[in-house]
Inverse folding.
């Protein structure tokens, strides 16, 4: 009888343990699969750090990063190929004006007075020393209609130059130095690390064009499908928290961050070491987008009516 009783107790305990353990196993959190595109420049370093240092995983995200080359084509891919893609205010606003449901969900880089990453560069012997000297000249830009060129046109207008008097041609950042040296263009809209190389070759910065719009303005940021973003605010929160952790890591471990940068950009070690980090920040507001909408209208680049409050999902 005692043996049977012990067996009965053991069976009972086994059943109890099964009913207790099973729910615990069922409640184990599953990582959320997220697809994101990036451009291989230092701007997107926080995402690479978050991936390589397990910070996305820490916040419950299983992130797949895919390299892209043309930022202006990415708004049409959200909701289909990607959950998060890089963008700028002009690209977002134009996409919305064309009927796409896309929204800003996280900041990435801000252009600030004490840390400008874009410069309008001219050759030191060009004779160009002011905005007025650019009237009738040819400027190399990464994208006609992109945020850097919009800012350059705004700077010209603020300094008494008709933006329509300046011609523009699209030139990839790596090719700008050669085009300027060969005098095929009169000025180039350059981004770090290419700014550093241009300055080292003796070229001169006329201005940091983005700062014509303000002393602290949003540059590139992350966007998503509006429908997806409104239904997945928790995922957006985890994305931003991961990037915030990555930004803190970059500040505390700059050498390791540069190693990760080299891995994703494939730039030479000397260039990686010389490239300054931009000002990373994930906060983003409707006012950040509205500022650029006003700038675009001022230079005749945007005429649609949009509600900036609906273009940011936190």
């Amino acid at each position: 009888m005692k043996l049977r009783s012990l067996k009965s107790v053991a069976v009972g305990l086994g059943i109890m343990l099964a009913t207790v353990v099973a729910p615990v196993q069922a409640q184990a959190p599953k990582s959320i699969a997220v697809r994101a595109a990036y451009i291989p420049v230092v701007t997107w370093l926080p995402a690479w750090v978050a991936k390589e240092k397990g910070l996305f995983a820490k916040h419950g995200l299983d992130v797949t990063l895919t390299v892209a080359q043309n930022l202006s084509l990415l708004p049409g891919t959200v909701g289909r190929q990607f959950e998060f893609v890089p963008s700028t205010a002009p690209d977002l606003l134009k996409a919305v004006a064309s009927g796409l449901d896309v929204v800003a969900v996280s900041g990435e880089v801000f252009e600030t007075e004490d840390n400008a990453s874009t410069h309008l560069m001219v050759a030191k012997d060009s004779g160009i020393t002011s905005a007025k000297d650019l009237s009738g000249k040819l400027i190399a830009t990464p994208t006609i209609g992109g945020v850097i060129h919009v800012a350059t046109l705004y700077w010209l207008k603020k300094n008494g130059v008709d933006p329509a008097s300046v011609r523009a041609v699209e030139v990839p950042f790596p090719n700008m130095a050669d085009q300027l040296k060969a005098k095929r263009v009169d000025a180039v809209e350059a981004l770090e690390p290419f700014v550093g190389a241009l300055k080292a070759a003796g070229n001169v910065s006329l201005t940091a064009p983005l700062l014509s719009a303000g002393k602290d303005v949003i540059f590139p940021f992350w966007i998503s499908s509006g429908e997806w973003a409104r239904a997945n605010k928790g995922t957006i929160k985890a994305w931003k928290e991961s990037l915030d952790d990555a930004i803190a890591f970059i500040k505390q471990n700059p050498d390791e961050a540069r190693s990760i940068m080299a891995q994703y950009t494939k730039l030479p070690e000397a260039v990686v070491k010389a490239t300054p980090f931009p000002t990373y920040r994930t906060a983003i507001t409707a006012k950040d987008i509205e500022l650029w909408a006003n700038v675009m209208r001022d230079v005749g680049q945007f005429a649609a009516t949009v509600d900036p409050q609906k273009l940011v999902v936190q």
Q: What stands out?
A: The domain at 118-214 is CATH 3.40.190.10 (D-Maltodextrin-Binding Protein; domain 2). Residues 14 and 308 are 59 Å apart (CA to CA). The mean pLDDT is 91.
